[in-house]
Design brief:
With about 140 residues, the chain is an all-alpha fold. The chain has three helices and no strands. About 55% of the residues lie in helices and about 0% in strands.
Amino acid sequence: MDTPVPIPNTEVKHFSGDNSWACLSQDSTSPVLLASKRGFFYGQTANTFSSSIGLFVLGLTHYQTHENGSLVQNDATNWALFLLTTVVPAVGYLLMLLPMAFYNITGDGHRRMMQDIKERRAQAQAQAESTAAAEG
């Protein structure tokens, strides 16, 4: 049985760096975060609105809190809880796939992106070296 040999990949940063989905920079071009270059603020805003909408829907269906002494909910509340925890997230995930369908990360598109990354790194390195030479 052959032992797999790891292939070094120094060009892709999965969890940090410029144009990473996890760590956005000023010039990030992430297609998933269409609304913002500052993901944290908009993520918090989206959480606020989604929580508010969820609580509003539960209020409309007469959700009974545990302080009221009842753990049994009416049919409308049970249906709303089901929709809010299954159907609504599923629709949201399907909507997230739309930008990805138009984002070419295969073949030539991927090679162009990797070339752009190499060029940006080379520019940043040259700028850092010229700054260091000017200071030193």
